[in-house]
Design goal:
187 residues, mainly alpha, single chain, 9 helices
Amino acid sequence: MTFSSTPSTPAPCAHDLARRLGGILLGLAAVVARRFLQKPQLVALILPLWRRLTRIAGRFERAAVRPALVRKAAAGGGSGTRAPRLQLPSGRGWLVRELGHEAAGYGLQLAHLLAEPEMQALLAAMPGVGLVLRPVCRMLGYDLAAVTTMVAPVAVVATPTPRVWAAGDSADLAGVPGERFDLATIA
Protein backbone atom coordinates (compact mmCIF):
# COMPACT_ATOMS: atom_id res chain seq x y z
CA MET A 1 0.00 0.00 0.00
CA THR A 2 1.56 3.28 -1.08
CA PHE A 3 0.44 6.70 -0.02
CA SER A 4 0.63 9.94 -1.88
CA SER A 5 3.49 12.06 -0.68
CA THR A 6 2.29 15.40 -1.96
CA PRO A 7 2.67 17.92 0.83
CA SER A 8 -0.53 19.81 0.14
CA THR A 9 -2.67 21.07 2.95
CA PRO A 10 -6.42 21.13 2.61
CA ALA A 11 -8.23 24.40 2.17
CA PRO A 12 -9.83 25.69 5.37
CA CYS A 13 -13.27 25.27 3.83
CA ALA A 14 -12.64 21.68 2.69
CA HIS A 15 -14.41 20.32 5.77
CA ASP A 16 -17.48 22.40 5.01
CA LEU A 17 -17.47 21.42 1.34
CA ALA A 18 -17.15 17.73 2.24
CA ARG A 19 -19.99 18.03 4.76
CA ARG A 20 -22.28 19.75 2.25
CA LEU A 21 -21.45 17.26 -0.51
CA GLY A 22 -22.11 14.41 1.91
CA GLY A 23 -25.50 15.90 2.74
CA ILE A 24 -26.44 16.12 -0.93
CA LEU A 25 -25.34 12.56 -1.69
CA LEU A 26 -26.98 11.07 1.41
CA GLY A 27 -30.22 12.88 0.60
CA LEU A 28 -30.06 11.48 -2.92
CA ALA A 29 -29.40 7.99 -1.52
CA ALA A 30 -32.47 8.30 0.73
CA VAL A 31 -34.63 9.29 -2.25
CA VAL A 32 -33.24 6.33 -4.19
CA ALA A 33 -34.16 3.93 -1.38
CA ARG A 34 -37.66 5.35 -0.98
CA ARG A 35 -38.55 5.59 -4.65
CA PHE A 36 -36.86 2.40 -5.90
CA LEU A 37 -38.85 0.39 -3.35
CA GLN A 38 -41.95 1.37 -5.32
CA LYS A 39 -40.52 -0.01 -8.57
CA PRO A 40 -40.00 -3.80 -8.45
CA GLN A 41 -37.59 -3.78 -11.39
CA LEU A 42 -35.26 -1.37 -9.53
CA VAL A 43 -35.30 -2.83 -6.01
CA ALA A 44 -32.07 -4.74 -6.63
CA LEU A 45 -30.25 -1.45 -7.37
CA ILE A 46 -30.94 0.15 -3.97
CA LEU A 47 -28.05 -1.33 -2.02
CA PRO A 48 -25.36 -1.01 -4.75
CA LEU A 49 -26.39 2.57 -5.47
CA TRP A 50 -26.50 3.46 -1.76
CA ARG A 51 -22.99 2.05 -1.37
CA ARG A 52 -21.73 3.94 -4.40
CA LEU A 53 -23.14 7.30 -3.25
CA THR A 54 -21.87 6.96 0.33
CA ARG A 55 -18.48 5.74 -0.91
CA ILE A 56 -18.19 8.78 -3.20
CA ALA A 57 -18.94 11.08 -0.26
CA GLY A 58 -16.29 9.35 1.87
CA ARG A 59 -13.70 9.35 -0.90
CA PHE A 60 -14.27 13.06 -1.54
CA GLU A 61 -13.83 13.84 2.14
CA ARG A 62 -10.63 11.81 2.40
CA ALA A 63 -9.22 13.34 -0.78
CA ALA A 64 -10.15 16.93 0.10
CA VAL A 65 -9.55 16.98 3.85
CA ARG A 66 -6.69 14.50 4.27
CA PRO A 67 -4.89 14.37 0.91
CA ALA A 68 -1.73 12.84 2.41
CA LEU A 69 -3.68 9.70 3.31
CA VAL A 70 -5.12 9.06 -0.13
CA ARG A 71 -3.86 5.78 -1.53
CA LYS A 72 -2.59 5.48 -5.04
CA ALA A 73 -4.18 2.85 -7.23
CA ALA A 74 -2.51 -0.53 -6.83
CA ALA A 75 -0.85 -1.97 -9.90
CA GLY A 76 -2.34 -5.24 -11.10
CA GLY A 77 -5.56 -6.92 -10.14
CA GLY A 78 -6.57 -8.84 -7.05
CA SER A 79 -5.32 -12.36 -6.46
CA GLY A 80 -8.67 -13.87 -5.51
CA THR A 81 -11.89 -14.29 -7.40
CA ARG A 82 -14.86 -12.15 -6.55
CA ALA A 83 -18.52 -12.89 -6.85
CA PRO A 84 -20.06 -11.02 -9.79
CA ARG A 85 -21.53 -7.72 -8.67
CA LEU A 86 -24.69 -6.15 -9.95
CA GLN A 87 -23.82 -3.49 -12.49
CA LEU A 88 -25.48 -0.11 -12.15
CA PRO A 89 -26.83 1.48 -15.33
CA SER A 90 -24.17 3.57 -17.00
CA GLY A 91 -26.13 5.95 -19.22
CA ARG A 92 -25.76 9.68 -18.73
CA GLY A 93 -28.63 10.98 -16.59
CA TRP A 94 -30.21 7.58 -15.91
CA LEU A 95 -30.94 8.44 -12.29
CA VAL A 96 -32.87 11.57 -13.27
CA ARG A 97 -34.87 9.54 -15.80
CA GLU A 98 -35.84 7.06 -13.07
CA LEU A 99 -36.47 9.51 -10.21
CA GLY A 100 -37.60 12.62 -12.04
CA HIS A 101 -37.68 15.99 -10.33
CA GLU A 102 -36.30 14.78 -7.00
CA ALA A 103 -33.02 13.60 -8.53
CA ALA A 104 -32.91 16.71 -10.70
CA GLY A 105 -33.19 18.84 -7.55
CA TYR A 106 -30.23 17.08 -5.96
CA GLY A 107 -28.37 17.47 -9.25
CA LEU A 108 -28.94 21.22 -9.17
CA GLN A 109 -27.70 21.37 -5.59
CA LEU A 110 -24.56 19.52 -6.66
CA ALA A 111 -24.10 21.84 -9.65
CA HIS A 112 -24.38 24.91 -7.39
CA LEU A 113 -21.87 23.42 -4.95
CA LEU A 114 -19.44 22.67 -7.78
CA ALA A 115 -19.82 26.20 -9.15
CA GLU A 116 -18.86 27.88 -5.86
CA PRO A 117 -15.45 29.60 -5.85
CA GLU A 118 -14.19 27.56 -2.89
CA MET A 119 -14.99 24.30 -4.66
CA GLN A 120 -13.47 25.64 -7.89
CA ALA A 121 -10.27 26.44 -6.00
CA LEU A 122 -10.21 23.01 -4.36
CA LEU A 123 -10.71 21.23 -7.69
CA ALA A 124 -8.03 23.38 -9.33
CA ALA A 125 -5.56 22.67 -6.53
CA MET A 126 -6.30 18.94 -6.44
CA PRO A 127 -7.60 17.73 -9.83
CA GLY A 128 -7.86 14.14 -8.57
CA VAL A 129 -10.64 15.18 -6.23
CA GLY A 130 -12.83 15.97 -9.22
CA LEU A 131 -12.40 12.44 -10.54
CA VAL A 132 -14.17 11.16 -7.44
CA LEU A 133 -17.27 13.15 -8.40
CA ARG A 134 -17.41 12.00 -12.01
CA PRO A 135 -19.71 8.96 -11.50
CA VAL A 136 -22.37 10.88 -9.59
CA CYS A 137 -22.28 13.73 -12.11
CA ARG A 138 -22.80 11.18 -14.89
CA MET A 139 -25.73 9.57 -13.05
CA LEU A 140 -27.38 12.98 -12.75
CA GLY A 141 -26.69 13.94 -16.38
CA TYR A 142 -23.97 16.52 -15.81
CA ASP A 143 -20.60 16.80 -17.47
CA LEU A 144 -18.17 17.52 -14.64
CA ALA A 145 -15.92 19.67 -16.82
CA ALA A 146 -18.85 21.83 -17.90
CA VAL A 147 -20.22 22.15 -14.38
CA THR A 148 -16.88 23.11 -12.86
CA THR A 149 -16.24 25.80 -15.46
CA MET A 150 -19.56 27.58 -15.15
CA VAL A 151 -19.66 30.68 -13.01
CA ALA A 152 -23.08 30.24 -11.45
CA PRO A 153 -26.28 28.76 -12.82
CA VAL A 154 -28.51 31.53 -14.10
CA ALA A 155 -32.27 31.17 -13.93
CA VAL A 156 -33.97 31.95 -17.21
CA VAL A 157 -37.14 33.95 -16.76
CA ALA A 158 -39.60 33.87 -19.62
CA THR A 159 -41.38 37.13 -20.32
CA PRO A 160 -45.01 36.74 -21.31
CA THR A 161 -45.85 37.87 -24.80
CA PRO A 162 -49.11 39.78 -25.13
CA ARG A 163 -51.68 38.26 -27.44
CA VAL A 164 -53.11 40.45 -30.13
CA TRP A 165 -56.82 39.84 -30.50
CA ALA A 166 -58.40 40.07 -33.90
CA ALA A 167 -61.96 41.25 -34.41
CA GLY A 168 -63.27 37.72 -35.05
CA ASP A 169 -61.73 36.10 -31.94
CA SER A 170 -64.87 36.34 -29.77
CA ALA A 171 -64.92 32.56 -29.18
CA ASP A 172 -61.33 32.66 -27.90
CA LEU A 173 -62.04 35.55 -25.53
CA ALA A 174 -64.48 33.48 -23.50
CA GLY A 175 -61.75 31.04 -22.48
CA VAL A 176 -59.23 33.61 -21.24
CA PRO A 177 -58.82 33.18 -17.46
CA GLY A 178 -59.27 36.31 -15.39
CA GLU A 179 -61.02 38.19 -18.19
CA ARG A 180 -64.75 38.91 -18.31
CA PHE A 181 -66.38 39.43 -21.61
CA ASP A 182 -69.99 39.59 -22.55
CA LEU A 183 -70.16 37.68 -25.81
CA ALA A 184 -73.47 39.31 -26.72
CA THR A 185 -71.90 42.78 -26.80
CA ILE A 186 -68.83 41.65 -28.71
CA ALA A 187 -70.59 39.76 -31.50
